Amino acid sequence: MREALDGTDGFISAQALHSALHAGGSPIGLATVYRALGDLAASGDADSLQSPEGESLYRACSTGHHHHLICRSCGLTVEIGADEVEEWAGRQAAEHGFTRAAHVVDVFGFCAECSARLGG
Ligand SMILES: [Zn+2]
Ligand SMILES: [Zn+2]
Ligand SMILES: [Zn+2]
């Protein structure tokens, strides 16, 4: 499953990955794809996030903490670091006495290409 994810550029839903695998001739079932992606995300071998529509999306990312810019039209994904966010999140947690704080910050929008195609 990790290989299938590696073959995609951006975040992809279990359903879309299942369709792609089927188109490639794989008889794998949708439930199996869901379970495999969930396992990859749980073990840290894949990133997962919720789209603004509430759909779970997955991607084989670089390891280490990072954030994402995701195009809502074509799915283009850019991994971004965000020092300001790390600092801000750490400070907020400390001020409220939270330890072992983690955060998820992903930015959804339209990439430059899609923006141009859609007329801004
Ligand atoms: Zn990632
Ligand atoms: Zn795009
Ligand atoms: Zn961060």
Automatic annotation (TrEMBL):
Q: Which CDD domains match?
A: Fur_like
| Annotated localization | Cytoplasm
Q: Write the signal peptide boundaries.
A: none
Sorted alphabetically, the keyword list is: Cytoplasm, DNA-binding, Metal-binding, Repressor, Transcription, Transcription regulation, Zinc
Note whether Repressor occurs among the keywords. Answer: yes
InterPro entries documented for this protein:
FUR, Fur_C, WH-like_DNA-bd_sf, WH_DNA-bd_sf
| Transmembrane domains' residue ranges | none
Please provide an example of a Pfam family that matches this protein in its UniProt record. Answer: FUR
Q: How does it assemble?
A: Homodimer.
> PANTHER family of this UniProt entry?
FERRIC UPTAKE REGULATION PROTEIN (PTHR33202:SF2), ZINC UPTAKE REGULATION PROTEIN (PTHR33202)
What family, per the record?
A: Belongs to the Fur family.
Give the protein name, as stated in the record.
Transcriptional repressor
